[in-house]
Amino acid sequence: MPPEVLFRALGDTTRLRCLMLLLRERELCVCELTEALALSQPKISRHLAHLRDAGITQVRRDGTWVFYRVAEDLPAWVRAVLKATFDGNANGETLTQDLARLKQMIGRPPRDCST
């Protein structure tokens, strides 16, 4: 992955917030990200498509649910950058607020424990 692809993705606030939540929660549905970020579904989906097309995230479908997670095959340097970014922001106000909204969400999709 060329560095500019990663840093272009990280340079957008919505994509960065999605990635921080995915790193924290491991896997989230589009509806969960919509709730956590308090943004419209089309906006979230557009940013998730950008992350997917860049190879930063991957998708898992389960019936009508579409779950996103950080791609498992990222180069070590990309994982290190994402980890450092998360570690530096884990107690930040934005992530804390996003997590609080996520925890209050009613009707979160069920998880398949085998994944």
Attribute tags:
115 residues; alpha+beta; three-stranded antiparallel β-sheet; 12% strand
Précis, in short:
The protein is an alpha+beta fold and 115 residues long.
Set down the secondary structure blueprint:
Elements: H1 3-10, H2 13-25, E1 28-29, H3 30-37, H4 41-53, E2 57-62, E3 65-70, H5 76-89, H6 93-104
Helix pairs in contact: 2-5, 3-4, 3-6
- The tally of helices reads 6
Side by side, the strands of the main sheet go: 1-3-2
* Percent helix range: 55-70%
Oligomer: single chain
Main sheet overview:
3 strands, antiparallel
Query: Which stretches of 5+ consecutive residues score pLDDT under 50?
Result: none
CATH top level is Mainly Alpha
> Remind me, CATH topology?
Arc Repressor Mutant, subunit A
Global mean pLDDT: 92
**Known CATH architecture:** Orthogonal Bundle
What is the count of structural domains?
Answer: 1
CATH superfamily: Winged helix-like DNA-binding domain superfamily/Winged helix DNA-binding domain
Query: How many strand units?
Result: 3
Class from helix and strand fractions? alpha+beta
Would you kindly provide a written description of the structure presented here, covering whatever features stand out?
By secondary structure, the protein is of the alpha+beta class. It has a single domain (3-99), classed as Arc Repressor Mutant, subunit A (Orthogonal Bundle), CATH 1.10.10.10. It is 59% helix and 12% strand. The protein contains 6 helices and 3 strands, in the order H-H-E-H-H-E-E-H-H. The chain has helices at 3-10, 13-25, 30-37, 41-53, 76-89, 93-104, and strands spanning 28-29, 57-62, 65-70. Strand 2 (57-62) and strand 3 (65-70) form a beta hairpin. Helix 2 (13-25) crosses helix 5, helix 3 (30-37) crosses helix 4 (41-53) and helix 3 (30-37) packs across helix 6 (93-104).
